[in-house]
Amino acid sequence: MLSPDEEAVLGLEEVAILDAIRKFPGDVDAIHFMTGIPRSCVEVKVAALVELGYIARSVNGFEATKKDDQFRSGTGSP
Q1: For the chain, what is the domain count?
Q2: Predicted confidence (pLDDT) per residue in 44-75, tens digit
Q3: Domain span including residue 20
């Protein structure tokens, strides 16, 4: 889990998406199912998280990146 300060930087829905991807890498539909966030919102937020480098596309859908790991552990900047 992220700290309240980290949640404020990314937003609650982005944090929920990152948590879902870390638990089970998947596509937009899987993320929507796991988070309850509307599919159209997931599409936009996933695109932003890819651009920011927190997640990456893979053959399984989307996966967390090293940047996400560093951000969560506090060793990297957002």
Answers
A1: 1
A2: 999 989 988 889 999 989 998 877 666 666 64
A3: 4-73
